[in-house]
């Protein structure tokens, strides 16, 4: 009997499209629907296995057991080394494959990394997940990381990277219901480029929309998904929803009346895979089936999404006879990956201050004090892998010095119960805390201040943290803050008499002692909360000062806990170092002037006092398993500090706009527009040697709009040590119709030089890179202008400059007689935000208060050829309002006309209203549209020509 021929989709010699078509054609509608979920169902009759999207691999394989842990993403970026980051991506991709080979169901090959949201605001809770506040640098790093993840096989991907989170997502506060208002220039010049770079490079294969809304429309419904993003690459992209986001559309956001309508709209908008209900695809399939039955979807919509899901799997080699699955399982945490983790951690460390010849440390120091709450521990963040081992700062330095003393520097406290009931005390293992008549070790707790009013208490009895179990009992059984819902942190709520109450931060409830004397969370209507007096048993700062005073050098290691006060779901309110840590730093320095401050954190701090007083300061992100070795290498000068800051460090949160203000241009935010003096600028980082820059040369002093110019500069190591320098190229457009960045990164090179060695650094600048979004014509524009070429060591340490004339185009005046004037194409505004013009597409302007306005520069009204205008308006509040046009000033300018806007019931219910102009107006002006009341929406304006004039109407 002859064998049946193999299915065409299993033939790797066929074109990819033909293989996908063949498999798709063999599937039933029910089988295709099961592909549209994170956990795709198997098709046993065709030998097709189940498939899972979403292995977390931000800086190591997460949630699957012990794996190599590299520095956090922001730390990798601080290396400014794309070759290194590509190698890290390669290592992580290999480890993903190893986990997948061991457990194909539990470890999928579609990885949810990297995060490419520019780090617009350092208070964002997920700061450590991103790369940089600069979109170009973010894109360059993302490309390198993705290149490592996908491997170098031209036919098959090692893993399929997913870019997160599309779009304009930088706040955890109410993240599922807040809307990011993005004017067009911010959208196209700041938020989109970081996504575009890896897509155009062909190294990203999936994208995850974000939880938030953008201009009033849920990001999962963005028309940009199909209209723009998919045009940036020649392969199909799989858009995967964020976890639980599909339900948000009809629940938290209330954008649709039910889940069926929401699923249908998401699928049509371009979302192909629904991450909902954990591993159960059933509810999602049911909603899609109902949408088909209701006529909201056609089978072609299902086929389109299923095709994208299948193409990704084909690219991963699932249906090929040979793939990456022969990877050695021993690659996980292999010696080579450990060495790479050490190199990555070393290059990520940034030297922020170095005076008094304290650094590098002398290797012959007889006594070194290592102090601080992060001196002898490493922390995992939510997307870390499980640390296979820990080389802490203390461990790394102990290997290098003759005598290392250690002090954690924590206050040790006792909590005396109000009313004479004794002290809060630990009980037997797993039992709730109780009252003890006298203070002793069972009643003592080490107090961790993690900032933002969040404290953790560790029992001296068993070195376990206080937590709250499912029964609401306070127990001491946890290694520290952990989990998605952190239940190990408390607020110390101070009363007027100095006593305190303990409020459990996760639940918001207070700690009380019940009728049995057991500590638990207070129930509604229960006995009054218990009041405590906090007694200091050991003053941690004073104890640390004693240890520091006895050493030649004190190294104090502070920072954040990655799961407390700044993490996913929680933004920071300020930039301050936690108060107890700040007090510790000051006490150690007072005891020993030879103090080195080391910060290990997910984000910047406003350490102004330390910068003024301490001789040496270093920062790194949480550096992974090899952190201690890396720190020791940098502190002793075994390697030169190579890290540079990928984001601005501000002196205070007062230097920042509101967290929800996404208009970096209008708010003068990020290094691009910030006019103040930062604590440490973007790109900053010191070396143990010195460098001299000179001989700046340009291949041409003019450049056409489609040209490029070669830039060279000579860099010399003028010190007596080998060192690493990061040469940075910035530009500034000197004159423009639009507000331009003060400086903008265009390129960089890392160079390693021996003492006295020189190198010629060559960089290329393309005119196309100087384009910005022209709101008058709704397209990118290279403007005719002179640009400054700026070379230096950071965004504010610019050592050499030259000029180049770019021969682009001149932006003409807006001829409103020829086309409608989109409301969102404004140049300036006051008290407005952007909103959705319809659920599917289009943006509008929403007035937030009486007197709100938008302004359009350079409006050409012609030679007396406009006599009327129309406005497409809506109003979602009661009461009439007006919309008034004025020339050149919103309050006192000539009034052109006014339209009365009656309530329309909803912002999507549009009316087109007309009004005459008092007389034919002419000339070029700034046109203001002034709103008399909040709740008024404007889509566009049109202007009618004077009868008898040349027909220039729409």
Q: What order do the helices and strands come in, and which of them pair?
A:
Layout: H1 16-26, H2 29-33, E1 39-40, E2 51-55, H3 73-77, H4 82-102, E3 110-111, H5 135-150, E4 160-166, E5 179-180, H6 184-191, H7 193-200, E6 206-209, E7 213-214, E8 217-218, H8 224-227, E9 238-239, H9 245-248, H10 259-269, H11 282-293, H12 299-315, H13 335-348, E10 350-354, E11 368-371, H14 393-398, E12 404-407, E13 411-417, E14 423-425, E15 434-436, E16 444-449, E17 455-459, E18 465-468, E19 474-478, E20 490-494, E21 500-504, E22 511-513, E23 519-521, E24 532-538, H15 540-549, E25 553-559, H16 579-591, E26 595-600, H17 608-613, E27 616-620, H18 627-635, H19 670-673, E28 691-698, E29 702-704, E30 708-717, E31 723-733, E32 744-753, E33 758-766, E34 772-774, E35 779-781, E36 785-792, E37 798-807, E38 814-815, E39 821-822, E40 828-830, E41 832-836, E42 843-847, E43 853-860, E44 866-875, E45 881-887, E46 894-901, E47 911-921, E48 924-931, E49 936-945
What attributes characterize this protein structure?
TIM Barrel; Trefoil (Acidic Fibroblast Growth Factor, subunit A); 6-stranded mixed β-sheet; 19 helices; 954 residues; 49 strands; Rossmann fold; 28% strand; alpha+beta
Helix content: 10-25%
Alpha-carbon distance between the two ends: 73 Å
What is the number of strand segments? Answer: 49
CATH superfamily of the largest domain: Glycoside hydrolase, family 3, N-terminal domain
Task: Please mark out the parts with pLDDT under 50 across 5 or more consecutive residues, or reply none.
Answer: 950-954
Q: Rough shape?
A: globular
Biggest sheet, spatial arrangement of strands: 1-2-3-4-6-9
Largest sheet features: 6 strands, mixed
Which architecture name of the largest domain does CATH use? Alpha-Beta Barrel
Rounded to an integer in angstroms, the radius of gyration calculated over CA atoms is 30 Å
Strand percent estimate: 25-35%
Remind me, CATH topology of the largest domain?
A: TIM Barrel
Structure annotation, total helices: 19
List the domain count as a whole number: 5
Tell me, rounded to a whole number, the average pLDDT. Answer: 96
Structure classification: alpha+beta
The level-1 CATH class of the largest domain: Alpha Beta
């Amino acid at each position: 009997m002859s064998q049946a021929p193999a299915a065409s989709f299993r033939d790797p010699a066929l074109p990819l499209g033909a293989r996908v078509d063949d498999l798709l054609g063999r599937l039933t509608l029910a089988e295709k629907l099961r592909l549209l979920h994170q956990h795709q169902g198997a098709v046993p009759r065709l030998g097709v296995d189940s498939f899972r999207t979403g292995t977390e691999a931000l800086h190591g394989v997460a949630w699957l057991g012990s794996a190599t842990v590299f520095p956090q993403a922001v730390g990798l970026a601080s290396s400014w080394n794309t070759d290194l980051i590509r190698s890290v991506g390669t290592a992580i991709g290999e480890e993903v494959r190893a986990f997948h080979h061991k457990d194909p169901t539990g470890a999928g090959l579609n990885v949810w990394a990297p995060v490419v949201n520019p780090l617009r605001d350092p208070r964002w809770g997920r700061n450590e997940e991103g790369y940089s506040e600069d979109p170009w640098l973010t894109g360059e790093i993302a490309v390198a990381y993705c290149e490592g993840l996908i491997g170098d096989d031209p036919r098959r991907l090692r893993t399929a990277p997913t870019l997160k989170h599309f779009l304009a997502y930088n706040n955890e506060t109410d993240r599922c219901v807040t809307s990011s208002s993005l004017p067009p220039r911010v959208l196209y010049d700041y938020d989109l480029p970081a996504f575009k770079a890896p897509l155009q490079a062909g190294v990203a294969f999936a994208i995850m929309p974000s939880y938030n809304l953008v201009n009033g429309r849920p990001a999962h419904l963005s028309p940009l998904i199909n209209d723009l993003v998919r045009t940036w690459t020649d392969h199909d992209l799989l858009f995967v929803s964020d976890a639980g986001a599909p339900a948000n559309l009809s629940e938290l956001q209330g954008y649709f009346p039910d889940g069926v309508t929401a699923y249908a709209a998401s699928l049509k908008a371009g979302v192909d895979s629904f991450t909902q209900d954990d591993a159960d695809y059933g509810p999602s399939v049911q909603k899609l089936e109902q949408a088909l039955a209701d006529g909201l979807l056609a089978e072609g919509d299902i086929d389109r999404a299923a095709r994208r899901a299948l193409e990704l799997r084909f690219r991963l080699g699932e249906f090929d006879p040979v793939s990456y699955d022969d990877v050695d399982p021993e690659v996980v945490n292999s010696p080579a990956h450990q060495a790479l983790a050490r190199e990555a951690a070393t290059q990520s460390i940034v030297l922020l201050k170095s005076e008094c010849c304290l650094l590098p440390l002398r290797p012959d120091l007889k006594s070194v004090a290592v102090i601080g709450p992060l001196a002898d521990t490493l922390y995992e963040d939510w997307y870390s892998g499980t640390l296979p081992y820990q080389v802490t700062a203390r461990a790394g330095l102990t290997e290098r010095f003759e005598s290392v003393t250690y002090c954690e520097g924590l206050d040790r406290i006792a909590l005396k119960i109000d009313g004479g009931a004794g002290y809060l005390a630990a009980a037997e293992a797993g039992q709730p805390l109780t009252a003890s008549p006298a203070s002793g070790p069972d009643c003592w707790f080490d107090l961790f201040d993690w900032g933002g009013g969040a404290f953790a208490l560790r029992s001296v009895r068993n070195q376990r943290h206080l937590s709250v179990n499912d029964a609401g009992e306070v127990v001491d059984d946890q290694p520290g803050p952990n989990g998605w819902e952190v239940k190990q942190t408390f607020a110390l709520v101070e009363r007027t008499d100095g006593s305190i109450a303990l409020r459990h931060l996760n639940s918001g409830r207070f700690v009380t002692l019940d009728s049995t004397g057991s500590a638990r969370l207070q129930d509604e209507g229960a006995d009054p909360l218990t009041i405590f007096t906090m007694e200091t048993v050991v003053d941690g700062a004073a104890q640390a000062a004693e240890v520091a005073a006895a050493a030649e050098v004190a190294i104090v290691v502070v920072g954040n806990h990655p799961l407390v006060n700044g993490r996913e779901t929680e933004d920071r309110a300020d930039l301050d170092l936690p108060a107890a840590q700040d007090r510790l730093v000051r006490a150690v320095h007072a005891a020993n002037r030879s103090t080195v401050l080391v910060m290990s954190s997910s984000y910047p701090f406003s350490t102004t006092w330390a910068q003024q007083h301490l001789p040496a300061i270093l920062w790194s992100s949480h550096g992974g398993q090899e952190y201690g070795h890396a720190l020791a290498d940098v502190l002793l000068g075994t390697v030169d500090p190579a890290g540079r800051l990928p984001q601005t460090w501000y002196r205070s949160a007062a230097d920042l706009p509101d967290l929800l203000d996404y208009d970096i241009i209008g708010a003068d935010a990020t290094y691009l527009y910030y006019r103040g003096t930062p604590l440490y600028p973007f790109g900053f980082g010191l070396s143990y040697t010195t460098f001299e820059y000179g001989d700046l040369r340009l291949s041409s002093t003019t450049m056409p709009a489609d040209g490029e110019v070669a830039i060279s500069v000579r860099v010399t190591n003028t010190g007596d040590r080998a060192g690493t320098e990061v040469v940075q190229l910035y530009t500034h457009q000197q004159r423009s119709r639009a507000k331009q960045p003060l400086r903008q990164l265009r390129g960089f090179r890392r160079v390693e030089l021996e003492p006295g060695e020189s190198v010629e650094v060559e960089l290329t600048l393309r005119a196309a890179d100087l384009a910005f979004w022209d709101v008058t014509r709704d397209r990118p524009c290279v403007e005719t202008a002179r640009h400054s070429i700026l070379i230096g060591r950071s965004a504010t340490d610019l050592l050499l400059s030259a000029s180049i004339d770019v021969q682009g185009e001149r932006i003409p005046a807006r001829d409103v007689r020829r086309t409608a004037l989109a409301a969102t194409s404004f140049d300036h505004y006051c008290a407005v935000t952007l909103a959705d013009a319809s659920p599917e597409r289009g943006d509008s302007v929403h007035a937030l208060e009486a007197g709100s306005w938008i302004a359009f520069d350079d409006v050409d009204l012609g030679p007396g050829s406009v006599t009327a205008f129309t406005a497409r308006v809506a109003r979602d509040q009661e009461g009439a309002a007006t919309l008034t046009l004025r020339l050149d000033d919103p309050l006192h300018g000539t009034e052109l006309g006014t339209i009365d806007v009656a309530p329309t019931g909803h912002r999507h219910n549009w009316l087109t209203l007309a009004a005459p102009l008092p007389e034919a107006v002419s000339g070029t002006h700034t046109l203001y549209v002034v709103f008399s009341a909040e709740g008024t929406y404007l889509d566009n304006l049109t202007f009618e020509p004077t009868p008898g004039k040349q027909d220039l109407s729409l």
